[in-house]
Amino acid sequence: MTENVQQSPYRKAKTWHIALGSMTGIIQMAFYVLLGYAAYIGNLGYAIATGVVGILITLSRVFDSVTDPLIALVIEKFKSRFGKMRFFLIIGWLCMAIATTLLCNVFAGNFSFSDEAQTLSSPAGIAVFVAIYVLYIIGYTFVSCTGNMTGNILTNDPKQRPMLGVWNVIYSYLSPMIISMVIIVAILPKFGVPIVLPDGSTDYQWTNEVFFYSNFIVVDVSFLALVATCIGLAPYDKMENFKNIKKTKISLKDMWLLIKDNKELRRYIVAASSDKLAQTIASQSVITTLLFSVLLGSMIGSSIISIVAMLPSIVFAFIGAKLAGKQGNKKVMVFWSWLCIAWNVLFTLFILFVPEKSASSFGFPLVLFFLLMLGNNALKMVVSSATGAMRMDIVDYELERSGKYLPATVAAVYSFID
Fold first, then answer.
1. pTM of this structure
2. CB neighbours (10 Å) of residue 84?
3. Count of CB atoms within 10 A of residue 257's CB?
4. Which string of DSSP letters, residue by residue, matches 271-291?
5. What is the pLDDT of residues 189-243, one digit of tens each?
6. What backbone torsions phi and psi does residue 386 show, to the nearest 5 degrees?
7. I need a surface site. Which of 45, 187, 194, 326 has the fewest CB within 10 A?
């Protein structure tokens, strides 16, 4: 008896492979959290004025605009019978781990300001800081470009791809939250300098020792994530899954044509970057400090509410993935972005008309504030899940349009905007 078994046209991945293979987000966010304190690291460890550190980091984005396309080109051209993604993830992790170790454990504390008022930065400190930061950017670009390719290599099933966005969202939200709490709750009180505030409470000042031990946490966590990612990608990181290797050669011209001729990529960049910009602005420390101090009158209480409001909303990442698998990434991304906008209009009205510190104690304003935060986080989860899966669709669209498979290039363009 002969059975007719219809083979699926899609390449699917096991759920645990997706969960492990998506841990590149933990690698990136671990280092991102540490370098979020770059102003303190530069000031305390390298005798650089805080404002100067900000200028140096901003100027480094110009260098990043050069490294993104070049590193994408290297990844597209690379050939190996062992694949390419794990190789470049390891290279990127090594660059970042070496950079942060040099920054926090080797050279920090060896420089002095040029004046007693500590306004004239150390030229030697600036030179060393910039050189190390450039190495970090190179490593971060390798990991970012490779990480944004994982979805296309793991699966091309439109129903399964949104789940990749779920894992990316979970790792991107939870890992920086946990690492930041470890640094602030465990390391800062132990190695920081205690100061007594006017109200009698104790706060702590940053020191080089705080970042010395924080770097060990970051390197260890990111290394474990790297190992897990390589295990998840191993069955799929094969040359047969990179359609361009034997057919065509990729050049810088192809990268320019990708941006010039692929209108769907340009539309995606506008949609995704505008969503990311809105989320980034809302999460800035200045905004959250003003919001929580005015409405709650307590930054400690705000941290607790933020975490409690964030954890249940992760469920909506799975809901978003299910919807995207059934309705399509574009439809979900557009519809839920409009919902997110409408919800934030309500949030804005609440902030405008509720009296100051009215949510500082349990009552209707506090409950409403919590529900608004919970809904806002939930809607962002759905949008983020669809956005990540949509990027994979853009890669497949380019393959259909031009016959060229450019996952690293699409990832580099998005990474630069992101």
1. 0.78
2. 24
3. 15
4. HHHHHHHHHHHHT-HHHHHHH
5. 899 888 876 767 677 888 999 999 999 999 999 999 999 999 999 888 887 766 5
6. -70, -35
7. 194
